[in-house]
Amino acid sequence: MAEDELENLPGVGPATADKLIENGYDTYQSIAVASPGELSNKADIGTSTASDIINAARKAADVGGFETGSMVLERRKEIGKLSWQIDEVDELLGGGLETQSITEVYGEFGAGKSQITHQLAVNVQLPREIGGLGGSCIFVDSEDTFRPERIDDMVHGLEDDVLQVTMDEREIEGSPGDEDAMEALVADFLDKIHVAKAFNSNHQILLAEKAKELAGEHEDTDWPVRLLCVDSLTAHFRAEYVGRGQLAERQQKLNKHLHDLMRIGDLYNTGILVTNQVASNPDSYFGDPTQPIGGNILGHTSTFRIYLRKSKGDKRIVRLVDAPNLADGEAVMRVQDGGLKPE
Fold it and tell me: Given a cut of 90, is residue 25 above it in pLDDT?
């Protein structure tokens, strides 16, 4: 949006418009979903002025009113489903990972959480006709888990027919058996994954804001951001806020961070995939004592919760724990050199 359009909002002059744009509030919609306190701090204006600006932006963007169930159904047709390329898992998830939603995957170390983020960073780039979303990926790495070599493995692990369709769409000459063509394809996949390492929780929160800017920059390109991975969501928060005395502050910051991620999903039709660490509940005498970190804040904010646990060998059990429109259930997959595979 041009600067002079922002100046049509009450209380927005040239200087305020510059500050808004500089902080990523460059559309009526991005302003409409901001809080007065947030806008006040970023644009250095009074809270009442920020409220007036937000209300005017809501009217201009037609955001915040009621709509009929039919209208919601029509709007939901825009939501994409990202295939895991594993029929049993896709069926469990109603077609795959959903855009405009937060999907949380939790499990113990070595269960394969990071394998899922890498695989979906590849799958999101596949053409829509074969289960992808034809988009790029943002990867926020808080545990030093991102490995480009793993992306290479997973691209090579795709089925030949999937590889050929992808090569044709990207105008890469050759076939899946041609190593030069495959090398060019892998490089192209890696170019469309934007990776940032989060050094602490405050930096991680900042990276969510940077991710919003990046998604906005790519919105009208051939490769819009269709997946945002955070691996892991809770590692820094868990390490930095220790003990009950800091629990409230930790949960408040985590809540804000989750809502920042959710806003990216809503504004840019992006799927949000977060991994989560677990702890063992010592009071549990029966059943699985494994509990996800983050408490009710994360439980309520995640649209889909998936519990990943180890089975024999390379098998992993994918259990859908919570979803607004799907029944709980389980599926089995394998974690292999070529990526995630059916049982």
Answer: no
CA-CA distance, 51 to 32, in Å (whole number)? 10
* 227/214 Cα distance (integer angstroms): 12
| Residue 214: Cβ within 10 Å count | 20
Other CB atoms within a 10 A radius of the CB of residue 129 amount to 9
**Its pTM surpasses 0.90:** no
Structure tokens at 126: 């596949």
* Rounded-to-10 torsion of CA 341, 114, 196, 172: -10
Q: Chain-wide mean pLDDT for the chain? A: 91
What is the gyration radius of the CA atoms in the chain, in angstroms?
Answer: 21
Q: Region 61-71: what's the mean pLDDT? A: 78
Rounded to whole angstroms, how far apart are CA atoms 185 and 156?
9
Beta carbons of 23 and 43 less than 8 angstroms apart: yes
- Give the integer Cα–Cα distance in Å for 10 and 112: 51
On the question of a cis peptide bond just before residue 175, with omega within 30 degrees of 0, the verdict is no
Q: CA 59, CA 312: separation in Å to the nearest integer?
A: 56
